[in-house]
Amino acid sequence: MTNSTNTKLSEKLDKAINYHNLGKFKEATKLYQELIDHEPGFPDPWNLLGVVAYQKKNYKLAKTLIKTAIKLNNKAPDFYNNLGLVHTKLKNNDGARFQFEKALELDKNHINSLLNLASLYRKSGNFTDALRLGKKAKKTDPNNVSVLNNLGNTLVDCNFINEAVLTYKKAIRIDPESGLSHWNLSLALLSIGKTAEGFAELKWRWKWKGFPGKRRKLNKPVWSGEDLRNKTIFIYPEQGLGDAIQFVRYSSELLHLAKQVILEVPKPLSRLVNIPKLATKIITEGETVPTFDFHATYVDLAVIMKTNSASIPSHVPYLKTSPYLKKKFAKLLNKYSEKKIGINWFGNEQNPADYFRKIPIEELEPLFEMQGINWFSLQKETQNSKSKNPKNNELIKIRSSPLEQAAGLIQELDLVITSDTAIAHLAGALAKPVWILLHHAPDWRWLTNGTTSKWYPTALLFRQSKAGEWAPVISEVQKHLNLFLGKQA
After folding, report:
1. pLDDT tens for each residue of 71-110
2. Is the distance from CB of 374 to CB of 396 less than 8 angstroms?
């Protein structure tokens, strides 16, 4: 190609990349395709067209396009990194690792490949290598906010929380407006019991574009602590079911402040909310919202009320079941004479965190072999769970999927044993004795140590001391079960 041709191709490529960065995929694709048609041996548009396909979730096409770019230029670390990302989406972790490592062979300090390989190790539980790569990335680019956030997250995985806090704070000094850095800092602070500081940082979550919750665009102002006398406030959930159960309690704090509290609840909770205790009016998600003066999410309330460790609303129960369900399950369970214990061993399989939270059913076998217990499954059946029942069929299954049914069963049990799932929150909110089995780096709400929870007074916490090792946890549960059975005999 002549210099003139190179210049024209470069200009068109720059224009295409500009469209691409603006999210104008159609315009970018058209220019990338024109570049390929004009010069098929030009690798960059092949790679970038693959990136467009990746962003549009057409991973097989992305793989083909980026591999074509690599055939034309096998010395570009960006190409291998992008192909690695495609492999992660195709759930080919070995293939992804190979591509990231290939990129690092070409450029040992390639930041994106360091971060992506570290992330791959994190997701598979290889925290040692994830931390090594995270520290290398920081050494390579010490003022890169993405690098610092990824390193902080890995430090949290390793339970080096104080070091993670310092890392997030450095990221905030570099970019004070980074919502992600503030979000990560809030969770780290909350996990070590710095509740007031953690909730103060939590207000930044709305500044992070990747935040999974949504604040609704309503035609009335967000409540930020204004006088609510003679006012109506509308409260609604922002995240998952577990968070909704945990934070719906804050609605009751408004009953003595506002004229009326309208509480919207997720459909699974619609019949479980205790109206006199939590609100003056309950609506279900999707229903028409009555007139109101202010609005806020459940979690907003914890932030606005400046929650600290001493002020967590810990009175339970604040959920209830209907008299009909109580009667129904009392009758169903009446024929079982031994201690009735419910068990749940995994949660939402779509949540990446459940990879570490879930307990392989075979690990629970020692519990099922204990005498004097009738075990009841609280496990929501999925396609994957149907083949994961105990080998001797110890579990009694009388639960259907709706959370209300689970609550009805829980109310009639002597004890609930569960991994970190919505069932843990449900049992705690119903004031049922619940033993929660936690992985080595649990969610912030369970803190990093201790056996009790300020959020749920009836909970007892059992913790992994080493990542992936459930046997010592189950052994400890057995000891407590023997005491439990002895006391109740």
Report:
1. 999 999 999 999 999 999 999 999 999 999 999 999 999 9
2. yes
